[in-house]
Design goal:
The protein has helices at 17-21, 25-34, 57-69, 127-130, and strands at 45-51, 74-80, 84-90, 96-108, 115-120, 134-141, 144-150, 162-171. It is of the alpha+beta class. It has an 8-stranded antiparallel barrel with strand order 1-2-3-4-5-6-7-8. The chain has a single domain, classed as GXWXG domain (Lipocalin, Beta Barrel), CATH 2.40.128.580.
Length: 185
């Protein structure tokens, strides 16, 4: 196991985002593979999101690239409901958009075949779904979750996972800004 709770200063039940964000990538991916899937209904609401930028120049460059691609927007986190979810985005004017919907269901991980909470963007009509993004969520403790995010690759498999951390819920479920946009595929 990646984390030895007997010799730790902090029990995993008390972990916060820095416990995960401080791990090296290989250890974080291994830790993800050891975590359980959240149970149905166990994760609900809007969660603060933290991009794992790693401990390398490449990780920081990738994070900066995502920020630049957002043209002044910034990803704040995800909302997860019973059968769907969405992303929370900070706009340049300070407003928050709730968009980029995905389907939510328990299933087998595309990375290791073990149970995970799958966030499937192709369940909705949006560019991220067209690109084939799937986020897989596993539970660290009652308020902390680790997600592996992958796209299809050229070989028919999946890309190396980008890792994100979700903490909360910060607020209750609010819903997308326009439920007529990004309709179910």
């Amino acid at each position: 196991m990646v984390h030895d709770t007997k010799n730790s200063l902090d029990a995993m039940a008390d972990w916060q985002p820095p416990h995960l964000l401080g791990m090296h990538r290989e250890k974080l991916v291994q830790f993800f593979s050891e975590l359980p899937a959240p149970q149905e209904g166990e994760i609900s609401g809007e969660y603060a999101g933290f991009d794992y930028l790693g401990h390398t120049r490449e990780g920081w460059d990738a994070g900066w690239g995502r920020a630049e691609a957002g043209q002044g927007t910034w990803w704040l986190g995800k909302a997860i409901g019973k059968s769907e979810g969405y992303n929370r985005i900070l706009n340049p004017d300070g407003s928050i958009s709730r968009m980029m919907r995905y389907g939510v269901r328990l299933g087998d991980s595309l990375l290791d075949g073990r149970p995970a909470l799958l966030l499937v963007y192709s369940d909705f009509n949006n560019p991220t779904g067209d690109a084939g993004l799937v986020d897989e969520v596993r539970k660290v403790n009652d308020n902390l979750f680790l997600a592996a995010c992958t796209f299809p690759d050229e070989s028919g498999g999946r890309t190396e996972p980008a890792m994100i951390v979700l903490a909360g819920p910060a607020t209750a479920w609010i819903g997308v800004d326009d439920d007529k946009e990004e309709v179910r595929s």
